[in-house]
Amino acid sequence: MQSNKYYILTSLISLIVFSACSHKDDFCEEAPNISNIDVNIPLKDLTDDMIGSDTQNEALEFIQKHPFIADYFFERRRYGQDSIVAKNMVNIFSNPAYKDTLYQQVKNNFDDFEGLKSEFELAFRYYKNYYPEVVVPELEIVLAGLQKDLFVSDSLISIAADYFLGPDAAYVPNGVPEYILMRYEKEYIVPMTMLLLTQKQNETDQSDQTLLADMVFYGKSYYMTKMTIPCTSDSLLIGYTAKEMEDINKNEHIIWANFLENDLLYETSHFMKNKFIGERPKTFEISQECPGRIGIWVGWQIVQSYMKNNPDVTLQELMKNSDAQEIFSLSKYKPKG
């Protein structure tokens, strides 16, 4: 059964959880030759048009030209009237603090967005190497007044550039914790997006509600994402600090022992499972220093071990395999340390 867990997009994307940097060199060095795969992603930069929509008439004209942006990023359906959405846009884009400060940071940080376009094109070249039928979407750059981060579908990737300026921006989204905000920088955009896009390849048995099944599901997702960006360091993907990554690699055996000793692998309580795979600053049940979402990181290690110990299994076969117990058993996973 194919998973229905993909394309869930919120400002706090709890799925954006990846692993440490111990496997970067192997993945990069073993990356397939993609020289014969050509990808051109159409880029539409709407930021100048949006920052120029600082009168009611200009904002209304923009809404009529780009109804999806009004619907998704400015919640037109919630307000019901274009005039209300236009007023909200004018309040944002005519504000000197936004126009003269935050927008300038967007321009300085992203330049003309061609670098981001090139990163996406490289990722899709790898993606199409494994899944040639994949359709290349359009890339759209917008401003959202720090209200939403991005939208992803098969046909469109829409990035709110002002959301990805990181914790040092002049203004940051309200209510986003520091440990999550550190992931909202431009370097995270492509990994974040590819994780969401590739999850449609990830099949899962939804009748298996164990923590192990969730760990393997996420582990497969991150393994797949790594295949599309093989030379991106795992340290960038996980969003952990350098010290956290050093600690989890050094203490992997202790982390794993905790799962076994507390019979966590076959836990089905969502409350308990969320302690190990949910969005939290730390996994306090293991250690005051153990980063949150550690169960997802362990799941990735299990999947990597499975692929290493079963070299005849293709990426496509891995993603179609919904039997988490089989993957775990054949992984022969042994933590370092």
Characterization of the model:
The model is unreliable at 1-24 (pLDDT under 50). The chain has a 4-stranded mixed sheet with strand order 1-2-4-3. By secondary structure, it is mainly alpha-helical. It is built from 18 helices and 4 strands. The two termini are 36 Å apart.
List keywords for this structure.
mainly alpha; four-stranded mixed β-sheet; 50% helix
Summarize the amount of helix as a percent range: 40-55%
Radius of gyration: 21 Å
Main beta sheet: 4 strands, mixed
Question: What structural class should be given to the helix and strand makeup?
Answer: mainly alpha
Strand sequence of the main sheet, in spatial order? 1-2-4-3
Element pattern in H and E? HEHHHHHHHEEEHHHHHHHHHH
Q: Which range does the strand content fall in?
A: under 5%
Number of strands: 4
Number of discrete helical segments: 18
Shape: globular
**Average pLDDT level:** 90
